[in-house]
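We treat protein structure as text, and this decision shapes the records that our systems exchange. This encoding replaces a full spatial description with a residue-level series of whole-number codes. Below, we set out a record of this kind in full and without editing:
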Amino acid sequence: MYTSTENEGYIKKEVDSYGVARIEFGHPSHNAFPAILLKNLAATITEAGKDSEVKVLLLKSDGDRSFCAGASFDELIDIKSESAGKTFFSGFAYVFNAIRLCKKMVIVQVQGKAIGGGVGLVAACDYVFATQKAQIRLSELGINIGPFVIAPVVKRKIGLVPFVELTLNPDQWRDATWAQQHGLFQEVYDSIEEMEEASQAFSKRLASYNIDALRALKKVFWEGTEGWDTLLYENAAISGKLVLSEDAKESLKKIKRRK
């Protein structure tokens, strides 16, 4: 288990007798991601993928309201150089590539709101369970940057036109019905309890299948993404530069004052 200070959040992993690795992350600010949490999540996924006892990964976040608020606003405000900005946003690239390169299926539970990088995390997973209370929003343009690192991940899952709709309406939430209709969510349930029961049963069932077949399918699912080893980091550099603009800094300060 990766644990840090209260402001850095935590990650914990446990593997059950079926070979399902349950990975949970949490942060006091609506499960937002500071750099250290992104680094540790990527490392946890990579380790689980290499563990011979693990057959399926099941990802979830803490609490019953917010799935993930995306990037830590406190860290975004503190970015002072393009290199530091690229380093921060590359943290999301590390996580997405860890999921992509993992030879095992990665399932995720979405119990509540997902914003920005949180939407990217959902899109990166191979199969998504959600509740009716789950909502999504790409807020990046609203703070005068853009969803560059997550763009390839989200476009791959829902297509260009829905991605444009999300990107150019940064203040508008899309509900679970919208997300399911556009392929981001695969199964939606009325309650967290129902979602958890269904996702755990699904994960155990996957774990019972031929591991070589699952690996081959994972490779098929991710065909055409080989260039992400460089693309995501190039896109991180774009966000890293834009976050230094006066417009972005002022937007972040306004949001922080409202908290």
